[in-house]
Amino acid sequence: MKKEKKLFGKEQLTLQSIVIQKKEMYLTDLDEDKVMMDLDSGNYYALNSVGASIWEAIEEAISIEAVVQKLMDEYEVEQDVCTSQVINYLQLLYNSDLIMSMN
Fold first, then answer.
1. Helix 49-57 crosses helix 79-95 at what angle (to 10 degrees)?
2. N or C: the chain end with fewer CB closer than 10 Å?
3. Tell me: the pLDDT tens digits for 31-63?
4. Domain spans of the chain?
């Protein structure tokens, strides 16, 4: 049986991964961007408009593949670039405990 590759002790997210926002976040709008605070750690994060679109897409449990499709519908971007960027961004959020994987 093949072991799943782990990064920083966490699973590596894929297009099939189901992700959702961590609910212990306070979020506010700042023009087209968003600023959020992790209520557990007290850390602040700034999201540009694309990051904000991703954050809104994962308000409910959703596959990363569906997030990529939503962004491709909203922005003019090549699929391979969008896929790579979304997976990397969500992996960063996941490794920082800002989102949860439902897998």
1. 70
2. N
3. 878 999 999 889 999 999 999 999 999 999 999
4. 19-101
Strand segments, DSSP code E, in the chain are 6-7, 10-11, 18-21, 25-30, 33-38, 44-47, 62-63, 99-101
Sequence letter at residue 101: S
- The string of pLDDT tens digits covering residues 20-32 is 999 888 999 988 7
Domain 19-101 has CATH 3.90.930.60: yes
Contacts 24+ apart (CB under 8 A), 42-46: 45/98
Average pLDDT rounded to a whole number, residues 14-19:
97
